[in-house]
Please model this.
Amino acid sequence: MTREPESRPGTTIYLYELAWILPSIAIPVGMLVALTVTAFGAGIHLPGVAGRVDPRAVERTPRFNEPGVVQVGPERYEARMTAQIWAFAPREIRVPAGSRVRFIATSKDVVHGLYIPGADVNAMLLPGQIASVEARFDKPGEYPVICHEYCGLAHHTMAGVIIVEPRP
Ligand code: CUA
Model:
């Protein structure tokens, strides 16, 4: 009595198993490759932590004692911002089109968010921690600055604006 090897039920099960096992290895490997390429090749990182600050002394800490925008180079600006319930300081920022803006921000009280739709800005503002994130503003217009971490009763009203002015 002989049986054809390919008609054995065990072989079919083995092939099905293989059809599931191979993608389950290939998918995480693919993700790891994508992560490596974006992090080291394209230089995409999470918003950086630029240091620590005493949350009770934010107003006396250099850079945060005078929230605002300063020019730090040709077409380069630094926006020093603080967040507190329920406002950003400064509420309004003006830069010319084509500017690169580094946001240096922290919270004076609870966890807030710093989210600018239309720009590459999406960071958490934690008390005691300084967040640093950079974005380029090429298109003139108004960009809303939104707190996207729930921070209490008037969280939904917490917003600011970036006005990108056309170059003369
Ligand atoms: Cu601040 Cu929500």
Summary: The radius of gyration is 25 Å.
